[in-house]
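User: Structure with flavin-adenine dinucleotide, tokens only please.
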Amino acid sequence: MNTKDVCIIGAGPAGIAAAIQLKRCRISPAVFETDRVGGLVKYANLVENYPGFPNGISGEELSGLFREQFNRSSIDIIHETVEEVNPDDNLFRVKTTHNSVYCRYLIVASGTRPGKFDDFPLSGKAAGRLFYDPGLLRTKKGKSIAIVGAGDAAFDYALSLSRGNDIIILNRREKTRCLPVLSEKIKKNTGIKYQCGFRIVDISGSESGIVISGTISGKAKKIYADYLLFAIGREPALDFFPGGSCKHFREKEREGYLYFAGDVKRGLYRQVAISVGDGVIAAMRIYRKIREGKIK
Ligand SMILES: Cc1cc2nc3c(=O)[nH]c(=O)nc-3n(C[C@H](O)[C@H](O)[C@H](O)COP(=O)(O)OP(=O)(O)OC[C@H]3O[C@@H](n4cnc5c(N)ncnc54)[C@H](O)[C@@H]3O)c2cc1C
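Assistant:
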């Protein structure tokens, strides 16, 4: 049986910070990560609020630095998706397709997943041109990309993708919900158009592009684009718990065996600095519990 003191689900800022802190306490966690080490921040155009970078730093660079520090700490990483977490006696069983690892302490630092557009079904041809994160779109040049959303992520994606592409942001409301610094930058960027009050009524696709049909103040309007990116909110990534809910594990949390760190538990307050802090606190609490048997 493969048993560890601590398992961590997710190697974004929260999981990385927790793992590094545990290593300093001479506890070797096993970290599970589906994707590259570094987390969601890789998509950020410019991170201006993480101390230590007076001129700001691109999300890609920051996540690269996180990855470098993680790799230097010789932390066990399992590049697999956690599919199930179940209690097993006094342990957690963390299961992927190929592995089961048992642990006494579990840190859930799995972040969020994008909310899906389910107002109406999308045809197969349209579906191939739809995205929920900008990963694959970042290599595109000379394309038109429509982004649906009104929050920080929509505006931030627009800034990143506008390098070499034409962007239109479609907001169904009249007002934006993003930080002033982002809307100010969008206003100055000639490669980005912004359309508020746009209500989508249909999305159809063809070999050559996508048509987003909608209304503005009751009048029909069609937007033509090569690609469509939805940035319409994010939800905690907790699919590996039975029924997608951690409610049966509350006792484990109260007893100090289960911890949630970062975006997965932070609701609207999703920021790198908060995730890093959560990760460090979880690691310190685990160390204290192992050493002194104290929970808080
Ligand atoms: C466009 C954009 C711009 C942003 N700009 C800023 C900014 O300027 N400043 C700022 O502070 N924050 C910014 N953020 C927010 C920041 O990226 C997050 O707050 C931060 O990345 C959260 O860290 P985390 O470790 O909690 O979660 P994440 O970074 O989401 O990491 C979670 C990790 O868990 C992995 N995972 C999930 N489920 C599983 C599973 N079942 N098995 C294995 N692995 C799994 C994921 O692959 C991921 O790597 C921005 C976010 C976006 C999208």
